[in-house]
Design a protein that fits this description.
This protein is an alpha+beta fold and about 200 residues long. Helix content is about 40%, strand content about 20%. The chain has 5 helices and 6 strands. It has a 6-stranded mixed sheet, sandwiched between helices. Helix 4 links the parallel strand 3 and strand 4. Helix 4 runs parallel beside helix 5. It is globular, with a radius of gyration of 16 Å. The N terminus is likely disordered.
């Protein structure tokens, strides 16, 4: 199994452990805690599996593009990304990971599109051709299925089949409920890892 593929599975494992630790340590669900809790936990968990990886957090799009010689104009949304996976030996960027603690469709689409733009804009063969989003939120199975269909269609239409999406569920206990105030309070938690990757049609 390649590192690129197995990273998605390790991120799914990290989601399970983060949800359990959040509940045990604070009595709150993972989506009810600051995003930084999830960010640090995921970085630590991934590093336990891949000792060659190190991490930076909240890097700007501008800095990422400058570092990897990517045309910043190809990335439609500026701002910061949640986690940048780097080579521990060289410090070079490997992948981008975005985190979501709600099932807001606009935010979901915006992150997936930006990850896809990075995958397309990266130099040929660059690890940034694969990026990830980890989502821990309160949502139903039917909502997840509808979101998957909508997202696949949107990405297919926008990127002309050059981007592939892979969604891996994060296996949470059905009794794990959201403690976040509002309409999601006391609703079952769900988790997903989305891999966003460039497909070279010449391969």
């Amino acid at each position: 199994m390649s590192t690129k593929r197995s990273l998605r599975l390790v991120l799914a494992e990290a989601g399970v452990e983060a949800a359990l630790e959040a509940e045990e340590m604070t009595g709150k669900s993972i989506n009810d805690l600051p995003e930084y809790f999830l960010s640090v936990f995921i970085a630590r968990h991934v590093h336990q599996h891949f000792k060659t990886f190190t991490f930076s957090m909240e890097d700007t799009v501008k800095a990422i593009c400058a570092s990897e010689e990517i045309d910043e104009a190809l990335i439609s949304r500026p701002g910061k990304v949640d986690i940048v996976v780097r080579s521990q030996r060289t410090g070079n960027i490997r992948h981008i990971i975005e985190l979501k603690r709600s099932y807001n469709v606009e935010g979901h689409i915006a992150d997936i599109v930006r990850l896809a733009e990075f995958a397309l804009a990266a130099p040929a063969g660059h690890p940034l051709e694969r990026n990830f989003m980890v989502m821990m939120a309160a949502a139903s199975e039917s909502a997840s299925e509808a979101r998957w269909e909508r997202m696949c269609e949107l990405i297919r239409n926008q990127f002309n089949d050059k981007i592939t999406l892979i969604c891996t569920p994060i296996s949470l206990d059905e009794e794990m409920l959201s403690t976040r105030k509002g309409r999601t309070n006391d609703k079952p938690l769900m988790g997903e890892v989305w891999e966003v990757r460039y497909e070279d049609e010449n391969c």
